[in-house]
Amino acid sequence: MNLPHVKVVPAVIAFFVTCLFWFIVAPPEGVDINAWRLLGIFVGTIVAIIGKALPIGGAAMIGILLVGLSQVTNPGQPAKAMADALSGFSNTLIWLIGISFFISRGFIKTGLGARVAYHFVKLFGKRTLGISYGLSFAELVLSPVMPSNTARGGGVMYPINRSISESMGSYPDDASRLKLGAFLTLVAYQINIITSAMFITATAPNPLVTAGIRDIAHIDVSWGQWAIAAFVPGILAILIIPWVLYKIYPPEIKETPNASALAKQKLEEMGKIKLEEWIMIGVFFLLLFIWAGGPELISDHPWFKVDATAGAFVGLGVLLFSGVLTWDDLLKEKGAWDTVTWFSSLVMMATYLNKLGVITWFSKTVESSIQSWGLGWIAAAIILILLYVYIHYLFASNTAHISALFASFFGVGVALGAPPLMFGLFLGFASSLCASITHYGTGSAPVLFGSGYVTMGEWWKLGFLTSILNLIVWGLGCAIWWKVLGYW
After folding, report:
1. Which of 107, 142, 347, 418 would staple 413 via disulfide (CB 3.0–4.6 Å)?
2. What is the phi-psi region of residue 169: left when phi exceeds 0, alpha when psi lies from -120 to 50, beta otherwise?
3. pLDDT at 69
4. Which spans in 125-222 are helix H?
């Protein structure tokens, strides 16, 4: 029977990995047999996701099935075990991301996302470096309410990037690519990575980070707390990275007067802002107000304490009630439903791995190894962050990376004395920044690399250099900014 949706080799490897934990490799001392078997299901699911044995949602559903069927979380109690397997769907942060996907559809459907980008190009587009900054700030404006960096970087920004490049005679797979398109493509990708690190809702896997911090350190990181902590280092990176790329990978065209004209033409074709766009603008600012804790500044009445996910539902309700979005639009947003499914599976397994002591065991094992080197927590934290970032060469998904490694690395850092909030936030930022190194690092990478403007060698070399620069900028930026905030 032909099964074109299944990649047989990755599926067999994932099955074999799961069986290793169940039937071949005995659990180490101090680890319960059911916890070890759950780890096998978790690792097998991650392998299936990395190898794309099935679509990610399908792999996640198999993981949920195995957890419920095997009863590893509640031996001998099948109903409770199945409830445990489905418990991830009750996680409010997962639904925050899912609803944000729906809201981001409004930006694309109404054309507001493209309008914002063209306005920035019109303002900054007389020079090539100016175009890069214009597109970068457009990306920044859209990122808080567009949790798919693929939709943001590939669906909204890439077509604009491409049209500007071609209007200047810069085409992919041609000598003319170096005129403009190659530079803009690299900047677009690196900025997409930076903005993904700046907000919980800027890329889908970020809630896995906050869930890990909550489960291990019992600290709830709010949307506003994350955004404030990332604001200064993120802005510094947005200002510095395009300029550095401009110097080390300069475009042949430095002056681009036609870009502003093109943007102006596109805006004229779009006409005046439509009612649907005004509603989107209103929802955008309403969500920022709620997520930043604005209602609590008005009153301490319980009604003004609005949960971030409830706020997202408010925004979605406005869009549905006004007709900007329809239920059919939501049903067609496969990325949202897919994300809710696989997030629920991975968060559920990670939560129970922590409850059953696997994360604690792993953390203590790594902790003892690092302690034997006689390092302080600062040196240990730096080593952990570098390992965490550059191991991403083995991953084609931020989600898989975070799911497999964040809890363990965070647990080790905390055990070695790193301040939980500071280390957790920086490791969370690094969870996005690590994707800068390869052409498959995150969802937007294949779209931008696939355009043909940048060779693989250029992408990897400049991605590695940018990753070093990002770590330096974010490291220094966080150190200074967090001192001001009183984090240390």
Report:
1. 418
2. left
3. 93
4. 128-142, 149-150, 158-167, 181-198, 206-217
Helices (H) and strands (E) in the chain, counts: 24, 0
Measured distance CA(41)–CA(81) in Å, rounded: 14
- Strand residue runs (E) in 159-210: none
Check pLDDT > 70 for residue 5.
no
Decide if 84 contacts 67 (C-beta within 8 A). yes
* Tokens encoding 272: 């005046």
245 HSE (CA, 13 A, CB side): 34
Per residue in 389-408, pLDDT (tens digit) is: 998 887 767 887 888 789 88
- Which pLDDT tens digit goes with each residue over 353-371? 878 888 778 777 777 788 7
* Closest among 488, 475, 486, 487 to 232, alpha carbons compared: 475
Burial category of 257 from C-beta neighbours within 10 Å (exposed 0-12, middle 13-18, buried 19 and up): exposed
Beta bridge partners of 127: 255
Residue 85: CB partners within 8 Å, gap ≥ 6? 64, 65, 67, 68, 73, 348
Give me 315's structure tokens: 């925004």
Provide the pLDDT confidence category of residue 419 given band limits of 50, 70 and 90.
very high
The answer to whether 291 touches 311, Cβ cutoff 8 Å, is yes
Q: What is the mean pLDDT of the chain?
A: 86
What is the C-alpha separation between 126 and 470, in angstroms, rounded?
Answer: 27
> Which residues does 10 contact at the CB level (< 8 Å), separation at least 6?
47, 48, 50, 51, 52, 53
Once rounded to an integer, what is the mean pLDDT over residues 64-73? 93
Residue 52's contacts (CB-CB under 8 Å, 6 or more residues apart) are 7, 10
Structure tokens, 220: 């709830």
DSSP string, 84-124: HHTGGGG-HHHHHHHHHHHHHHHHHHHSHHHHHHHHHHHHH
Q: Is the pLDDT of residue 1 over 60?
A: no
- Residue identified by tokens 């200064």 is 232
The amino acid occupying position 156 is V
Q: Please, what sign has the CA dihedral across residues 319, 194, 454, 385?
A: negative
For the chain, the C-alpha Rg in angstroms (whole number) is 23
- Which residue has tokens 């979005």? 325
The count of C-alpha atoms lying within 13 angstroms of the C-alpha of 212, restricted to the half-sphere facing its C-beta, is: 31
Other C-beta atoms lying within 10 Å of the C-beta of residue 436: 29
Q: Tell me how far apart the alpha carbons of residues 366 and 409 are, in angstroms, rounded to a whole number.
A: 9
Q: Which residues pair with 255 in a beta bridge?
A: 127
Give the chain's largest Cα–Cα span: 71
- Secondary structure of the chain: what % helix, strand, coil (to 5)? 80, 0, 20
Q: Of all residues in the chain, what percent carry a pLDDT higher than 70?
A: 97
C-alpha to C-alpha distance for 173 and 243, rounded to whole angstroms: 24
Do the beta carbons of residue 465 and residue 248 sit within 8 Å?
yes
